[in-house]
Amino acid sequence: MIDLIKYPVLTEKATRLLEKNQYTFKVDSRLNKTAIKSTVEVLFGVKVIAVNTYNPPRKSRRLGRFKGFKSNYKRVIITLRPDESIPLFSES
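Structure for Large ribosomal subunit protein uL23c, as requested:
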């Protein structure tokens, strides 16, 4: 279950969304919104209000004369209740 959520995304936009109690993660591209919601609720013990997903375009890579693509992934923005937070992102 923990392999489904790969890691948190820490960009400028993701940092701004923390003020609105929204958290950004990179997840397995095969997950749907319902599975993401239940996984986050079980792992972190919080109540999820909304789940927004985004599939960024694939980036091409080249190694010598061989062309290919980087692996595909899905980015998720999770909105929590105003009184809850994920301790991984909490400021010290």
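The first helix runs from residue 12 to 18.
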